[in-house]
Amino acid sequence: MKDRLEQLKAKQLTQDDDTDEVEIAIDNTAFMDEFFSEIEETRLNIDKISEHVEEAKKLYSVILSAPIPEPKTKDDLEQLTTEIKKRANNVRNKLKSMEKHIEEDEVRSSADLRIRKSQHSVLSRKFVEVMTKYNEAQVDFRERSKGRIQRQLEITGKKTTDEELEEMLESGNPAIFTSGIIDSQISKQALSEIEGRHKDIVRLESSIKELHDMFMDIAMLVENQGEMLDNIELNVMHTVDHVEKARDETKKAVKYKSQARKNLISLQPGVATLVFRWEWSLNGIPESELDPFLCFLVTILGPDSANNLALEEPNLPSATLTSPQNLLLPHQL
After folding, report:
1. In terms of domains, do 318 and 216 share one?
2. Any domain includes 190
3. Cα–Cα distance, 103 to 39 (Å, whole number)
4. pTM
5. How far apart are CA 14 and CA 16, in angstroms?
6. Of 161, 195, 227, which residue is a domain's last?
7. Are 198 and 182 in contact (CB under 8 A)?
8. What is the CATH number of the domain that holds 87?
């Protein structure tokens, strides 16, 4: 009874261990499902930001092409800018949270951790690419708006250098643009455009400053990941090289096998004759009585097939060719 009790206890412990392993596997699967859900949500947000950036580019062009843009166009641009900042902050927070969890699990090396690192790196790079395009669009809009202001100032007779214009823009005081402009209908229209462009640039610079810190955070993150991504790319390149070498070796093996088969076929008649001569010598038949062709025929085709061939061919012996002893040679007929 004691031995049986110990056996049952051991079995119960084993079952408990198995249950723990199953629970760990289930928990890990649930964790990865949640992770991939966050990845998908973040990816969709980045895609949406990319769409908003393209829409913003179109609105920039509309605003630049009109001397006095419609208020609705500027309102639409303002809404897009707000939406981009909102989604960008959401993506930044998600990526930072993922990075924190990855760093906490860095001590463990597992396939899941590598997957999470890879997915995080891909999304971070994609996010930086999208935000870089947005930043480039903003800078381009600013430069073109500044150019329009400079041209309008020249029309009113006030020439300015790039440095002077930058100082005017940084001051944030539109009165600087109006000083010295004569009071005429044309000048009033030019003045209205200048002031409008100045306001656009001020709002734009405010947006750029708000996104700057976030952009730098993610850019630094991607730069730190550069070494890991380069290692992944290097491993992929090495894998491709190994596959190419394996394919070349396979081609060589097929070629050698084909050559070996040809050599074997060319050797078969001689080998067959030697085997047949050896078999008949064991049965006491003198080598002088052997017919080389029939030796080869029986060895290659087998006794039954050779016998059938002998019946069909009048030039071959008609006796049964079931064994070396029963094979009748031409001089014995």
Report:
1. no
2. yes
3. 17
4. 0.56
5. 5
6. 227
7. no
8. 1.20.58.70
User: Are 142 and 272 found together in one domain?
Assistant: no
Q: Do residues 187 and 96 touch, judged by C-beta distance below 8 A?
A: no
CA 131 to CA 133: how far, in whole Å? Answer: 5
Residue in this structure with the two tokens 């012996």, named with its chain if needed? 317
pLDDT in tens, the chain (333 residues): 445 556 655 555 555 554 444 444 445 576 677 888 899 999 999 999 999 999 999 999 998 888 788 889 989 999 999 999 999 999 999 998 888 888 877 666 577 788 888 888 899 999 989 998 998 999 899 888 888 888 877 777 777 788 877 877 777 666 665 665 555 545 666 777 777 887 888 778 777 777 777 777 777 766 766 554 455 445 445 544 544 555 566 566 556 555 555 544 444 444 444 444 544 454 554 545 545 555 555 555 555 554 554 444 445 444 444 444 444 444 444
- Amino acid present at 279: E
The answer to whether residue 243 is domain-embedded is: no
SS (H, E, C) 142-165: HHHHHHHHHHHHHHCCCCCCHHHH
Give the single-character DSSP code of 317.
-
Rg of the chain over all Cα atoms, to the nearest angstrom = 44
Q: Is residue 173 part of a domain?
A: yes
Specify if 246 maps to a domain.
no
Q: How far is the first Cα of the chain from the last one, in angstroms, to the nearest whole number?
A: 87
Whether 173 and 312 map to the same domain: the answer is no
Q: Which domain holds residue 198?
A: 2-227
Half-sphere exposure of 32 (CA within 13 A, CB side): 15
